[in-house]
């Protein structure tokens, strides 16, 4: 029994051992872990000798980088410049940078020739260029040339088609093979192919063209512009339609389309398929067969029913009530629909394969549009439904920002084109992609001011900076006395008492020379005097003496206390992009006279803060001097007034927000005089004669002229005033940070 | 089965004299063992279908053991690369399909050794870097082992370095891949393109429609939106550990470290050096190094010897000039050192330029302007230089550091093209972690002042204080801009009063009954809230007049992304349930307003309910407390902006005033604070 047992156990043992020896491995994987094995995938093998593998290139080879090429770089560049044919053009081969060096970026438009028809749209483009700050009348200064021949419509079946462009161009003495020329075009090619052909040899000229095809687009050289209608406003332009950020950001419909269905020819593939996604509920895709002369010839079975459905919906209504809008290709790649959807905050779903999107060099369309593929139309609905609501909301807001920043007027489209070209000329002083795609947009941010984003007032929160903790007090002295008056001494005293004050700069705009330095009050804060010109716009010149982010703009007769300054500055640090100040004005629409008016009466609203006592970012000095056309500054200098209105209008146009009023001690600036009209606490010459009715009407005029230049009224009204937290609360004065604000 | 049954029957005969129970016991055991043996045998000698799949994962193999493929001399060669290829013309999107994860599937061909007719190797089987790259793809989410489900194919033929290739035979090897199909959806990685004398800027191997991830593209060879521009990997970065160096001024201003420079460039650099003295350093290779010192790790200037790449950390700007090729490995070294690259290579397509904003990390200077380099660089503000240094290092860490980083970034770029609606944003690509951490991207970034006509919805959270609730409703209903009143009935044990008992008001009144008594119910984004503005108000806040509330709403309209509230001391009606303590009520700063009476955007309800980080929501619900603090933190966290306190009526005649705190609560991160 015992031995037998032993044998049996031995057999057992042996057989188990055998079992594990042969099959353990498999058993482990198949029997016990079969579930996991099924998922385990065959991955790239871990080679036993992977550490012995050779590198793809020896370090020596990498650092030597072949033999230094035989062709010298200079010769290569010369060869590029001479040998580049049109289709291979790049900035470094077809554009003469040296023309732009001496006079900077200047644009010359050819003078109009008599008897030459120019379409309405093209004359808008030309006048946009003439309104631009880069325009020059001297061809020898110019860096970029624009033809006066209308090249917008190059469809030779069209009525606007201009014949013999090629010959005319070659006749121009400045043409130079098209070098440094920019040609605008909206329509090219014709039925049936609709190719990008312009019908003349554009040589080495850059093209700013709508419906650009990626395969003919010369990257970094051409510019794709949007297709815009004839009625597109010259300047200003309508705002976007998004009035509020609703959540969930859904509208009545998810996706809409209403348009032609091409029965034959180019683009019909996509348009023919659109009706498939129509579900009658939240996806409305309506097509009509009616287009062209002979549509009935190609008519199919759907047509009659589709045509009936088509009439049941209104296009504008669909635009207003849909979250997404299909923007399919037409015969050409771009369509009016794109800008329409953008304005309506209807997120464009692009079905236009191979379209080089407008200004794609600068604009990140992935944030504002869904770039679909014509081939995957049927996936679009499910893909759209998967987009999370916060992303949809971000899309909607971005469409509005882009519309307003780059597309809402011909001016904006043309100026964006010019700025993109200007950026290419000096890549080290250009806008980063971030800048183009963040508020307030590339046109309002001047890289010549700074290339560091923290130097602008717009990006603090987004990039985690905070505005500097010091400010520069900037006092404009313009009294005729020529000596230091009591108010200015008091003011310097009060301002230098602030711990945040880095410097006091006095702009001496009197005829008499400033008093010698020992006459100025001594204080811990450095004080410097700048001899200014007489012009009022001078006070917003970007003086090198101003180095802090914040500028406290003051008139010599302003009466402020240190507490007020400190509090206003702390408020400004929360709103670095706005004007923060004390005395305010408001504007209103006067329906009787059909014009804008402004008032300083005690109203419940405010839309301007006088620059006689206000904090703002020093960048606005640069913007005022460089972005605004010289004409507006001359207007201000001529009127000797209104510079504060212009500044407020400018800041409001940039931020789309009202200025901020902060609390002020009760007793001062309650003068009755100010309640009369739109008093100009800023002009600095407080003589009673200056406040004549004539002057008052000048200020009204000025407001209207500004609104005209901007194309709309940028000012925004506010109803509130900011106080310190414990202001007038019933606690001990000792606990308050700004106790003197409440002292009578 | 049959065999084991036979053994069973024979069992009793082998051990005849055993007791029955023992017998059964042994028999069972034996049969199990035998069954096991048989099963093992079956697995062992089963045909190879099961076997072959296991050798991939388990068996350790050498690169030299891979199967050999002989390429006949007349096997087909693909067409040359088609310059007009774009995603919509040459790429088959149907293979990728729609999937909820929005991830493309990538298949890797198994490794083969290719020989020509005479048995000579076509190329090195695989380089270390390419093996790393394929391993990284294989370990990533993109990988699939199912060739039929794949959307993108990566050949295992290593074409990283064109110098190591026989061009015609490599092309033939590509053409015989099982799914080649004119190269559709195939992705090739190449870092050193071209060869002497003219050094083409793209891989010379004919590849038909295949996508090319190449280092050193020029604008003429790069097919925008189709190819991917990748960096030239520098193996040094794996060997040398350069610790990150804080941004700031460094010993040299401009440094050039490249060895193979065209004499013309070198002359220009030396002219710069002569003009600007010690702040410019132009290094060259060392001529008199002792044996055993690798030349690649040393650089010399006159008699001074410098360690490379360590010397790069000594300079603010580092020149990256084109050599024979446009793409230079030194770019990777320079970024690693946190030195700002000054890229002088006309027409060069920078690595990953489709997604990376190089203007934030580098300075690009046209070759023609090289003599002006010093003054151009001098004009860059110091703060920007520091940021560029940080950005450069971040680019290296995220996209240059290893073959894995390069491979994944490339696949992500292609993935973003195919699923653009799920693409990675500019910020995710470009913001370094420090910026991601300290910055906020306000979800309500568009400056809109909502129309007054829209009004607001008042949300009253109540438990059972009906009398006080009715008073609140009556008070609130007097506010002109109120458009709807929503009562959240948080008491499951008690029904809300009958309809007839509720006060009659001019706006719709809805009662929402909740399933659980949770404080978070107050912040749920109810569909009934149709306005943007929400007034959260407790059922015991009765001292706010309609003017005050109306003014609060007007203030909110001007700051729709902020919380607009009233001071805490209003909250004194009934403290039985709530044990809040606000000790320093009278301070000079406000960082929070109570949600006992506050206006805010409905968006924050959505965020509070669905996007609140961590377990804050659960904590609040469990402790029945702090929901207002959580809300305040949430708003400050996403917008970076402070709250606004609206002054209630007081002894002085200024009801239309608001107060703002001196300091904002910006960038308080929730994770930190909890």
From TrEMBL, chain A:
Positions of region (Disordered): 665-697
Record gene name: EXTL1
Source species, domain of life: Eukaryota
Protein name: Exostosin like glycosyltransferase 1
Entry annotated with the keyword Disulfide bond: yes
UniProt domain Glycosyl transferase: residue ranges: 472-727
Places the protein is found: Endoplasmic reticulum membrane
Family: Belongs to the glycosyltransferase 47 family.
Species assigned in the record: Taeniopygia guttata (Zebra finch)
Domain Exostosin GT47, first and last residues per copy: 104-385
Bilayer disposition of the protein: Single-pass type II membrane protein
GO MF: glycosyltransferase activity
Recorded metabolic or biological pathway in which this protein acts: Protein modification; protein glycosylation
Gene Ontology CC: endoplasmic reticulum membrane
Chief subcellular location: endoplasmic reticulum
Record has Endoplasmic reticulum as a keyword: yes
Keywords: Disulfide bond, Endoplasmic reticulum, Glycoprotein, Glycosyltransferase, Membrane, Signal-anchor, Transferase, Transmembrane, Transmembrane helix
Single Gene Ontology BP annotation: heparan sulfate proteoglycan biosynthetic process
Automatic annotation (TrEMBL), chain B:
Protein name as annotated: Exostosin-2
Chain ranges of the Glycosyl transferase domain: 456-671
Assigned GO CC terms: endoplasmic reticulum membrane; Golgi apparatus
UniProt record similarity statement: Belongs to the glycosyltransferase 47 family.
Protein source organism: Taeniopygia guttata
Pathway of action: Protein modification; protein glycosylation
Taxonomic lineage from the root: Eukaryota, Metazoa, Chordata, Craniata, Vertebrata
Localization, UniProt: Endoplasmic reticulum membrane; Golgi apparatus, cis-Golgi network membrane
Gene Ontology terms describing biological process: heparan sulfate proteoglycan biosynthetic process
Domain Exostosin GT47: 101-380
